[in-house]
Amino acid sequence: MCGINTIFRYGCLLDSDRETVRSMNREMLYRGPDDEGIWADDRVVLGMRRLAIIGLKNGRQPLFNEDGTLVLVCNGEIYNFKELKKNLECRGHLFKTESDCEVILHLYEEKGVGCLGTLVGMFGLVLWDSKNRVLLAARDPIGEKPVYFSEIPGGIVFSSELKAISKYGLLRKNLDYNIIRQILEYTYPVDMRQTFISQIRRLLPGEYALVDHSGLRLKKFWKISFEPTYAGTRENARDDFLNLLNTSVNLRFQSDVPVAVMLSGGIDSSAVATIAAASRKEIHAITAGYRGAPDCDERMAAKSLAEKSGIHWHEVELDTGDFQTYFDEYTRFIDEPVADPVCIPQWGIYKKARELGFKVLLNGTGGDELFFGYPYHNVTAGQLETKRRLASFLPIHRENLQAFGSFFSSQFHSFSKMGRYLFQDPIDYIPPFKNYWKSLPFKWPDDLGFRSPNPLEAYLHEAQNGPDQLSAILMSTWLPANCLHISDKLGMGNSVEVRAPFIDHKLVELVFSLPIEWRYSETEPKSFLKWVMQGILPQAVLCGPKKGFSTPDDFLQNLIRTHTGSVFGICHRFFHTVVLEKVLAPYS
Q1: Higher pLDDT, 510 or 295
Q2: What is the model's pLDDT at position 408?
Q3: Cα–Cα separations (whole angstroms), residue 498 to 126, 378, 488, 489, 493
């Protein structure tokens, strides 16, 4: 795990480029406090900061192949590196280090960019092929590790952090107001390519970039498929799923430094912790809770599971003062704005992990997105399916359905609820995609040039039924742009690597190859996962109420009151004064 930085020039490097990359490295010291590496030739400079997890003594980067013609910096972990390394050595490849990432160089020698399809892991990487004068940058299939890039005069810059690109005079910076609107409307940036700085973009999950004298080319090497191709029985699927989940958990425990688990009272993290404890003598888990807020506190449930499984349990208790302190701390590292209060308890857990000496944490991220973990997932999926069928029955477009729904509701008041259900867009009105600002009696300023089409609309074409349409949205936007973004930025802010067994791409492929009726229930969230985990997890976990990382209202209200003045000072650029006064009045 580390942070990487690269400047590529179509001509020769500028005299300042090496020092710029060194400055970019300093900007992300917390991502890699253990070591620094810089390498350059006449065209490229590669830099990295290292958090040593595997190959502690000799795994420093950049890494090189046997003859030095390939150079690599990689942020992340390749979990199947032992198997890959053994096969490569049998074919005559020579390894210089114990680093898991070195296998990428030798696979590239054999397969070129096809090597990406053989990797099981999370990664953001840049590889320079000096013989062919081509640069490869890539991001892992699900999007656990970020790769930002920007085309600059005479070249391209890549980095693990947006602010590392934006701070050192490489480009002119302009705000992208459409992305700012997305963040305010959907609580996170739905556009997976564009950041809120117009000149800085991201590689998409499962995408690579090739850069040579002809310019930049982008191409996907992995994409989620929703085709129900599974040929076995439901019982076969349970066995295959458990085998893959066990493998995923065990692979993610590979480390030369101590590993722990983030444990809540929910099914996902409980499954990870229970599987890990079954094959290890000593497991540690950390749980966050709130002082004086039992409705939002899962510590007792987590402690009970830990005691049953022989897990060493640690707790983090947050009060309103911690909420304020942690907010002020984590916002330095978040890089792009997201509106999710889960940041605060997660920050507390990562701080605790670092204090206890754990450089690696496993969590249950992805279970909700794979298995419709919240009740509103089931409602939204049902609404999407209703609209899909209605649109196929009526020869009119989706946007016309919504317009007709507004007319229907206004003319026939007794049917207004039915009209809203049938015709209005569920992804605008169901959390976490609720269009908050549409519910308020004001309009956005006309002079900011916002684009109006719903940015989630494109994902509805990737699946053939309502539940999978929702899955496409969750897996392609919400998961990487919100959940994984938070894990990466806040974990790295504490020099802690966060690993998520549920989103191993092989496990994801299996889940979405299953028939939708096995995976989705209109009335029971996570019905398939609960069935699979019968006899493995206690009934108290399987049947317990869904809490997630819920936050006490008074904690949030106190935080908002503290920052009302600064919010007003910033947001007057985007809203009329009367609008801000209306929104912030309850907290003044």
Answers
A1: 510
A2: 47
A3: 21, 28, 7, 10, 11
* Both tokens assigned to 348: 């507390």
Mean pLDDT of the 207-230 span: 97
CA–CA dist 211, 128 (Å, integer): 10
Mean pLDDT along residues 40-51: 97
For 266-288, the pLDDT digits (tens) are 999 999 999 999 989 899 999 99
What single-letter DSSP state applies at residue 233? -
3-state class (DSSP) for residue 260? strand
Q: How far apart are CA 129 and CA 418, in angstroms?
A: 60
Q: Nearest-5° angle of CA 494, CA 500, CA 506? A: 150
DSSP-derived letter for residue 204 is: P
- Residue 392's alpha-carbon distances to 387, 404, 522, in angstroms, are 8, 16, 21
Predicted local distance difference test score (pLDDT) of residue 396? 54
pLDDT exceeds 90 at position 428: no
Distance CA 369, CA 381 (A): 12
DSSP one-letter code for 482: I
Please give the pLDDT value at position 547. 67
Structure tokens at 397: 């477009």
Secondary-structure percent of the chain, ordered helix, strand, coil, rounded to 5: 45, 15, 35
pLDDT of residue 412: 47
| Nearest residue to 485 via CA among 348, 336, 364 | 336
Return the higher-pLDDT residue of 241 and 172. 241
Neighbouring C-beta atoms of residue 453, cutoff 10 Å: 8
How many helices, marked H, and strands, marked E, lie in the chain? 23, 17
Please give the Cα distance from 170 to 158 (Å, whole number): 11
118: helix, coil or strand? Answer: helix
Distances (CA, A) of 546 to 125, 295, 351, 470, 525: 37, 11, 25, 19, 9
Domain boundaries, the chain: 2-220, 234-372+471-555
* Domain 234-372+471-555, architecture per CATH: 3-Layer(aba) Sandwich (3.40)
What pLDDT was estimated at residue 313?
Answer: 98
Q: Which fold has domain 2-220?
A: Glutamine Phosphoribosylpyrophosphate, subunit 1, domain 1 (3.60.20)
Contact call for residues 278 and 271 (beta carbons, < 8 A): no
Under 8 Å between Cβ of 361 and 499? yes
- Tokens standing for residue 282: 């000593």
